[in-house]
Amino acid sequence: MKDTNLNKSMKHRTRIQRLTYLFQSKKAELAAGYQGYQELLGFVDQCNRLGITDRGQEMALNDWIDLLECWPFVGGGNAGPLSHVQRQRTMVRDGFVCTMCGRPADEVHHKSTRSKGGRNRGANLTTLCVECHEKVHGARSGICKK
Ligand SMILES: [Zn+2]
Ligand SMILES: [Zn+2]
């Protein structure tokens, strides 16, 4: 068990280094153009001071790395299916929780649905858990599914 824990913390340390490197190398652009900059800054700082202490942070760490590897965001048009990056960016912005009930989010929802011309813009996207997402769509389920 000891070895497993050691491997786990080593893995986290490497991931934190990766996050820190990506953050530092893109810091100026992020500060200028990324809305979640302060949150990201706080997270990087926390990782470096306290490490990763729970599963939620571990997921957040991986998501921030994914996001930074794709920054600046390109691809994933305004219409059509959401790209992975657009999905991740919405999840990060909304803190990985359902914006209706506060439970962990599972899916990204278009407030104005794509069938009604809703676009893949931040203001039109929100994160929901499966239950709330189904409630929102009712009989029209499946609109936002991957
Ligand atoms: Zn919910
Ligand atoms: Zn939806």
Give the number of domains: 2
Strand order of the largest sheet: 1-2
Number of strands: 2
Strand content: 5-15%
Instruction: Give a quick account of the main beta sheet: strands, pairing sense, barrel closure.
Output: 2 strands, antiparallel
Report on the structure:
- The structure is a single chain.
- The protein is mainly alpha-helical.
- The protein folds into two domains: 1-72, no CATH class; 76-146, His-Me finger endonuclease fold (3-Layer(aba) Sandwich).
- It is 53% helix and 5% strand.
- The chain has six helices and two strands; from the N terminus they run αααααββα.
- The protein has helices at residues 2-25, 27-33, 37-50, 55-69, 84-93, 130-137, and strands at residues 107-110, 125-128.
- It has a two-stranded antiparallel sheet with strand order 1-2.
- α1 (2-25) runs antiparallel to α3.
- The longest helix is centred in the first third of the chain and has 24 residues, at 2-25.
- The protein starts with a helix and ends in a 9-residue tail after the last helix.
- The chain binds zinc ion (ZN) (2 copies).
- One zinc ion is lined by residues 98, 100-101, 103, 128-129, 131-132.
